[in-house]
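Complex 330.
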Amino acid sequence: MLPIQTALPLCEMLAGDVFFPQQASTIAPGVDKLFYFIFWVCVFFFVLVVGFMTAFLLKYRRKENFDASGPTHNTLLEATWSVLPFFIVCYMFYEGVIGYMDLRSAPESAYEIKVRAKKWAWEFTYPNGYSTNELHVPPNSPVSLLMQSDDVLHSLFIPAFRVKMDVVPGRYTKLWFDATVPGKYDLECTEYCGEKHSEMLAIVTVHNDRSEFDAWLAKASDVFGPVDRGEKTLAQVGSELALRKGCGQCHSIDPQKSKKTGPAWWGIFGEDHQFVDGTSAKVDENYIRESVLKPTAKVVKGYGGNMPSFAGQLKDREIDALIEYIKTLK
Ligand SMILES: [Cu+2]
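Predicted structure with copper (II) ion bound:
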């Protein structure tokens, strides 16, 4: 079974070659070219060195009447095997530096998307303030990611783009790419960050053109439009928000009250809940609001206070929608 959230068909995941997935960004061909250059240089010298070693081993093995005299030094040969590799590694270094500079300096015109990494989900915030757990980008234009971590060290990796950068708590890190092939690609966390590290995945969608991307963003960020037009209920929007904001990573919503990092949501509205400090309260609108904005105010008995605060990340109407949604879970 494929891991959750990687909805990619197997054939797409396997496109590419033995070492790499498909090349889908401007820098991917250069990275692969350098990798294969180094790889084949290594293969060549491995075969050469081991070949001569084996041949000499046989030819000059110790025999009766062994004569150890004879030349032990050949200046031309020694100069050649020192100078030639020197130029080869210089070329590797040169290509490496050029590639590194390219990777590190985003063009000024890059479209900036903010990234928050948290145990164990990605959140992408677009320039208009809309945020979601999927990365959507326009094709053939530079996109830069300004990344922050809410908790521990994570690392963002998009194999098809050949880009990877640590996401470090307490500082911003940056990464950029220019996607060349429309389609869907995997995005992974590539720094072990705890129990569910391997489920910290997302999908990158490269749109067919800029206007398709703009249309997607306009539609996706109009969260309450469908409610105002009477096409959706507030609770339906709440269920989408719970998905997008990653609440479901820690809270189950099934009647069996499956165990996750946080308390199950099924049937909690109206219940009396006990807290670690011995107090208790009824689960109502104000309690849920407080749980979302200030999770440490009342920590449910039996749980660690490890819910991240969503203060500043959820608007009042979004919290309303989440409350309406939790009410329906019964
Ligand atoms: Cu991680």
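DSSP finds eight helices and twelve strands in the chain.
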